[in-house]
Specification:
heterodimer, A: 484 residues, alpha/beta, Amidase signature (AS) enzymes, eight-stranded mixed beta sheet, three-stranded mixed beta sheet, 38% helix, globular, B: alpha+beta, Arc Repressor Mutant, subunit A, 15 helices
C-alpha cells in the first residue's frame, strides 16, 4: 500500500486487493506510529475516517466509484470540515468545530475520498517553517532536526513520511511549493480562482489558493480534477469548462521553450541547489526542450510588495476573531475593549500579531498611498513581467526555495531571513499564475525542488512538463529513511 | 448678526430585497433575534460575500430617478472597525468608486423650488443591533439586521433651512417608495438621516465647522434637531465660542443635541478594496432594461395630472406626493370618473376620514372601485354631492352593501322626475309671490331662496340644476 500511485491504489480498490477500510487503517496505523515524532497532524479521528472508508467500500461494491473513491487524503487544517476541529493552527480556533464543509472538502466527500486527518500548519498560514503553529512545530521526515517548510508543513511532512498518499495545501506566497521542495515531493499551486476559497480560512484573499500535494505530477492531476471547479459561493472563483488535468500528461515536450529568469539565480541561492537546478534543466534539454534566458526585472520587489498586501488583507480578514461569537475568548476582562485586547493578545501568536500590525499600519490614513497603493502598482508591474516573459517561452523554471531544509529555530527569531524563503515563489502569487515544485535531486541527503511556472490556466501543460521529467527521473520516488 | 445655515444630508435607506446584501439570509424585520443570522452574517471562518444583484438594480433605479450618472464599474471596499454587532470587523461599503454618481433632486420649500445636488449614492451592508441591558450588565447582539442591503445617498451642502432639510427628506422618502426600492418605514429604521449642520456669517464664502446629527428617523425630529443645533451653534459663536467637528445625537425627549464623539476620537477606518469581491460592472443593456421598468416619477406624474387631467397645481402635487395615493387616483380616472371630482374626493372626504382613523390609503375600507361608483352617482345626478357624503359615511364600515343599496336605504335618490318637480315648483311659486316679484325686479338672491324652498319641499332629493332650470322657465313665462 505504501509508495503506490493514486491510480494504482484505485485499481487495487477496484479489484478488491484491499478495501478502503484496510487502506485507511493502514495509514492510520502509520500516523499513530510516526505522528508523535513528526507532529504532522493536528487532529485524527479514526472513527470518522473509517466510517468514510466503509461508505467508500459500499460505493465500490455498487460499482459507483470514481478514481479517488476510498483513497485517504490528508486535509490541511485551514479547510473547514463539518464535525472536525478546524483550527488553522491557532489557539484562537483551538476548539472551533466547523459547522460546514469547505468546497474542497465537499468535492473530496462527493467522490468518496477519505479524510485521514487534519494537518498541522503555520498559524493562519503565516510562516515558512511550520514553527508558528500553536500546536507545535512539524518535523521534516528527512531529518527531524529540520523544518519541513510552511505553511503547509503538516501536509508536506505527511506526504514525505508516507502517512497519507495525498494531501491538500494552500499557497499564499509559496506555502505548497516551498514545503514540497524541502520535503521532496510534488506540489501544485493552481491559477488564482481555479479552486474555490469557500470554507478555506482566509489569510490574504487576493493571493490564497488551494492546491494538491502528492508524490507525483500524475497524482496531482487526479487531485486537481477533484478540487477545481467554479463555485458561486466564492465571487473570485473562475467559471471555466471542466478540464481533465491528466489528459496531457504524456504529450511530448519536444520544442518546449523553457525560460530561465536570471533573477532566480543571483545572490542568496545556495550554490549546491543551483547546481541541481542546472542539472534538472539539462535533463529537460535532453528531452528536447529549448532553453531561453529571460528576465523578471521586478522580481526583487516581490517580497516587499507581498509584505504590504498580504498583511493588509490579513489584518482585515482576522478582525472577525474578536471573542464575540466563536473561538477563543479571554477568561477575565473589565470591559469590551479589554476583552478585545486580551482575547487577541492571548489568542494569536507572534507572527500573526506582527502581520496584523504591519497590515494595520500600511492601511492607515496617511500611509495608505505610500504603502498599499504603491504595492498594488508594483504588483501590476510584476504581473506584466510574466506577461512579457510568456511571449518568449512556454514555461519558466528555477529553484522553488533558495536552500534545502534548515534547522528548526534557525530563522524563527529573524523574520526577514524567514521571508526570504519565498523569494522565488511569491511573485507568482502576486500575478495569480500557476506553479509547481517537483523533486530535482538531493544535497547531503536533503531534497531540492525545481519550480515550474506556467501561464494562466496551463495546469495541464505544467503537469505534462513535470510528468515528462518524472518519467525519466526517480527523485520523487525516494523516501526518507525510517519512513520507507 | 445674520447667519447662513448650511445643511447636507446623508440618508441610509434599507433596500427592499428579500435577502441580504452578500448572503441568502432573509431581511425580514422583527423576527426572533439571530434567527436570520446565517453563517455569513455570523462571519464564520472561510465564508465569503456573494453580491445580491437585486440591490444593484435598486441602486440603478435610484440613479435613474435622480438624473445621476451610473458607474459602469464600481468597487466594494472594506471599512474596518471593531464593534460586537459588526461580525466581520469590517463593513463592506463603497468608497472611491460608488455605483451612483452626481445627480439632483428638486424640492419645494417655503414656496420656492430648488435643486438639491446629490453627490453620490453607494451600496453597503448594515450592522447588527446591540441591546444593552438585556440581562444584568450584559449586552445582547442580534445579527438579524447584519448584512441588510443599504443605499447611502449623500447630498452636497445645498440646504439652507430646517424646512429645506425636511422637504428634501420628504421628497427622497416619497421617491424611494415610489420607485419601489425601500418600504419607507422610518420606525423600523428603513429610512434614516444623518444631518450635517454648520452656520457661517451671512455673505461669507468659507463654510463653518459642521456637526453631524446621527440617525434621525422622523421628519419632526429632523426639524427639531436642526432648529436646536442651529440655535446652539449661533449662540456658541456669538458668545465667542468655537465649534468643533463632532458627531452628535438628538434626544427626542429633551429636544436637544449632544456630542457623541469628537473628531479626535474618530476611527481610522482603513478603507481598502475588498479582495473577496470583483469590481461591480453595470452594462448599458442592464440600465436600459431597468429604465423600461421604471414608473413615471412623481414630478412627471404631477405635470401630467396638471396638463392632461386638468388638476390644480395644489391637487396635482398633493396626489403625486404619494405613490399609493397616485395609484388610487389613477384607478378612479381609469373607471372614467371626472379627475377633478376624484381629486376633490380623495383630498377631501377620504383624506379626513383616513386621518381620523390613522390609516393609509391602501388600508381604506372604501377602495377606489367603490369610490368610483359613488362619484358616478353624483355625475349621473342620482344623488347630490351632499347626499354622496352621507352615503360615503354610511358605507365606510359596511363592505357588504353596494353604493346603490346605500342610496336606496338612506332614501337619498334625487327626484329627477320632471312631473314631480313641476308640482313642487308650482307650489313654491304660488306660496312665494313676493320673492318672485323681488327676483323680477333684479334681486338675484331671491332666486336662490326660491331654489332653496323647492329643495326643502323635496326634502333635499330634487335635482338642484333641474329645479333652477324649471324655476327660470316658469318665472320668465
Amino acid at each position: 500500500m505504501l509508495n503506490l500511485s493514486l491510480q494504482s491504489l484505485a485499481l487495487h480498490l477496484e479489484k478488491k486487493t484491499f478495501s478502503s477500510a484496510e487502506l485507511t487503517q493502514f495509514f492510520l496505523g502509520r500516523i499513530k506510529q510516526h505522528n508523535p515524532s513528526l507532529n504532522a497532524f493536528i487532529s485524527i479521528d479514526e472513527e470518522k475516517s473509517l466510517t468514510m472508508a466503509k461508505k467508500a467500500d459500499e460505493l465500490i461494491a455498487k460499482g459507483k466509484k470514481s478514481t479517488l473513491t476510498g483513497i485517504p487524503v490528508a486535509q490541511k487544517d485551514i479547510f473547514c470540515s463539518q464535525g472536525w476541529p478546524t483550527t488553522c493552527g491557532s489557539k484562537m480556533l483551538e476548539n472551533f468545530i466547523a459547522p460546514y464543509d469547505a468546497m474542497v472538502i465537499e468535492k473530496f466527500n462527493e467522490v468518496g475520498a477519505v479524510n485521514i486527518g487534519k494537518t498541522n500548519m503555520d498559524e493562519f498560514a503565516m510562516g515558512s517553517s511550520n514553527e508558528t503553529s500553536y500546536f507545535g512545530p512539524v518535523k521534516n521526515p528527512w531529518n527531524l532536526d529540520l523544518v519541513p517548510g510552511g505553511s503547509s508543513g503538516g501536509s508536506a511532512s505527511a506526504i514525505a513520511a508516507r502517512l497519507a498518499p495525498a494531501a491538500t495545501g494552500t499557497d499564499t506566497g509559496g506555502s505548497i511549493r516551498q514545503p514540497a521542495s524541502l520535503c521532496g515531493f510534488t506540489g501544485l499551486k493552481p491559477t488564482y480562482g481555479l479552486v474555490s476559497r469557500y470554507g478555506m480560512i482566509a489569510f490574504a484573499s487576493s493571493l490564497d489558493q488551494a492546491g494538491p500535494m502528492a508524490i507525483s505530477a500524475e497524482d496531482c492531476a487526479l487531485l486537481m480534477n477533484v478540487m477545481s471547479g467554479h463555485d458561486k459561493r466564492d465571487s473570485t472563483s473562475i467559471e471555466r469548462d471542466k478540464e481533465d488535468y491528466g489528459s496531457k500528461l504524456n504529450s511530448s515536450i519536444k520544442g518546449l521553450k523553457i525560460g530561465i529568469p536570471k533573477e532566480f539565480f543571483g545572490e542568496g541561492l545556495d550554490s549546491s541547489v543551483h547546481t541541481l537546478i542546472d542539472a534538472a534543466i539539462d535533463q529537460y534539454k535532453k528531452l528536447g526542450a529549448e532553453i531561453i534566458e529571460i528576465s523578471l526585472p521586478n522580481n526583487h520587489l516581490a517580497i516587499p510588495v507581498y509584505y504590504v498586501i498580504a498583511p493588509a488583507e490579513a489584518s482585515s480578514n482576522l478582525s472577525r476573531y474578536d471573542g464575540v461569537r466563536y473561538g477563543y475568548r479571554t477568561k477575565e476582562y473589565d470591559d469590551l475593549t479589554d476583552m478585545y485586547f486580551k482575547t487577541r493578545q492571548e489568542g494569536f501568536g507572534e507572527e500573526v500579531k506582527r502581520r496584523i500590525l504591519i497590515g494595520t499600519y500600511v492601511l492607515s490614513a496617511g500611509y495608505y498611498d505610500a504603502y498599499y497603493l504603491k504595492a498594488q502598482k508594483i504588483r501590476r508591474l510584476i504581473s506584466e513581467d510574466f506577461t512579457n516573459a510568456f511571449k518568449q517561452c512556454d514555461v519558466i523554471m528555477g529553484p522553488s526555495a533558495p536552500s534545502v531544509a534548515f534547522n528548526a529555530g534557525e530563522k524563527k527569531e529573524d523574520p526577514l531571513a524567514m521571508y526570504m524563503q519565498d523569494i522565488y515563489t511569491i511573485s507568482t502569487n502576486l500575478a495569480g499564475l500557476p506553479a509547481m515544485s517537483i523533486p530535482a535531486g538531493f544535497v547531503s541527503n536533503l531534497p531540492v525542488g525545481l519550480q515550474l511556472i506556467g501561464n494562466y490556466f496551463t495546469e495541464a501543460k505544467l503537469l505534462n512538463i513535470a510528468h515528462s521529467f518524472q518519467k525519466n527521473t526517480d527523485w520523487h520516488l525516494k523516501s526518507a529513511k525510517g519512513f520507507e | 448678526m445674520d447667519w447662513d445655515i448650511v445643511i447636507g444630508i446623508e440618508t441610509h435607506i434599507q433596500l427592499k430585497t428579500k435577502s441580504k446584501q452578500f448572503s441568502g439570509a432573509s431581511t425580514a424585520y422583527g423576527n426572533e433575534p439571530n434567527s436570520q443570522a446565517c453563517l455569513v452574517s455570523l462571519a464564520y471562518p472561510g465564508l465569503l460575500p456573494v453580491l445580491n444583484h437585486e440591490s444593484v438594480n435598486c441602486a440603478i433605479k435610484l440613479g435613474l430617478a435622480i438624473n445621476a450618472k451610473i458607474a459602469r464599474r464600481s468597487i466594494f471596499a472594506r471599512k474596518n472597525y471593531f464593534y460586537p454587532d459588526l461580525p466581520k470587523g469590517y463593513q463592506i461599503s463603497q468608497m472611491e468608486l460608488p455605483i451612483v454618481g452626481p445627480g439632483y433632486l428638486s424640492i419645494n420649500a417655503n414656496e420656492k423650488k430648488k435643486d438639491v445636488r446629490i453627490l453620490r449614492a453607494h451600496l453597503e451592508e448594515d450592522a447588527g443591533k446591540s441591546s444593552h441591558g438585556v440581562s444584568q450588565g450584559k449586552t445582547g447582539i442580534d445579527l438579524n439586521r447584519a448584512g441588510t442591503p443599504l443605499l447611502e445617498i449623500v447630498t452636497e451642502p445645498d440646504m439652507n433651512s430646517a424646512e429645506e432639510a425636511v422637504a428634501y427628506a420628504k421628497k427622497l422618502h416619497e421617491l424611494v417608495q415610489w420607485i419601489g426600492i425601500c418600504d419607507g418605514n422610518m420606525q423600523e429604521g428603513s429610512f434614516r438621516c444623518d444631518v450635517n449642520v454648520s452656520v457661517k456669517k451671512k455673505g461669507t464664502e468659507v463654510l463653518g465647522t459642521r456637526r453631524e446629527i446621527k440617525n434621525l428617523n422622523s421628519f419632526k425630529f429632523i426639524k427639531q434637531a436642526v432648529d436646536y443645533e442651529v440655535n446652539w451653534q449661533i449662540e456658541t459663536l456669538e458668545d465667542g465660542g468655537k465649534i468643533d467637528q463632532a458627531t452628535i445625537l438628538f434626544n427626542p425627549e429633551t429636544g436637544e443635541t449632544k456630542a457623541m464623539r469628537s473628531k479626535e476620537e474618530a476611527n481610522d477606518y482603513r478603507y481598502f478594496p475588498d479582495p473577496d469581491l470583483l469590481p461591480l460592472l453595470v452594462t448599458e443593456e442592464q440600465i436600459d432594461e431597468i429604465k423600461k421598468l421604471m414608473p413615471k416619477l412623481p414630478d412627471e406624474m404631477q405635470e401630467s395630472f396638471k396638463k392632461e387631467l386638468g388638476l390644480s397645481e395644489y391637487d396635482a402635487s398633493e396626489i403625486a406626493s404619494d405613490s399609493e395615493v397616485t395609484k388610487y387616483f389613477l384607478a378612479l380616472v381609469d373607471s372614467k370618473v371626472n379627475p377633478k371630482l376624484s381629486a376633490n374626493w380623495i383630498l377631501g372626504n377620504l383624506y379626513s376620514r383616513l386621518n381620523e382613523e390613522e390609516i393609509n390609503i391602501n388600508q381604506s375600507p372604501i377602495d377606489s372601485q367603490r369610490l368610483a361608483e359613488l362619484i358616478k352617482r353624483i355625475e349621473d345626478s342620482t344623488i347630490s354631492n351632499n347626499a354622496a357624503k352621507k352615503v360615503f359615511d354610511f358605507i365606510w364600515d359596511k363592505s357588504s352593501i353596494t353604493v346603490d343599496q346605500a342610496i336606496d336605504e338612506l332614501g337619498l335618490k334625487q327626484i329627477s322626475d320632471s312631473g314631480e318637480i313641476d308640482i313642487l315648483v308650482d307650489q313654491v311659486l304660488k306660496n312665494n309671490q313676493l320673492m318672485v316679484e323681488e327676483y323680477r325686479s333684479g334681486k338675484d338672491k331671491a332666486f336662490n331662496a326660491l331654489v332653496g324652498q323647492v329643495m326643502k319641499a323635496s326634502k333635499g332629493k330634487a335635482n338642484p340644476s333641474q329645479v333652477s332650470e324649471l324655476l327660470k322657465q316658469k318665472i320668465s313665462k
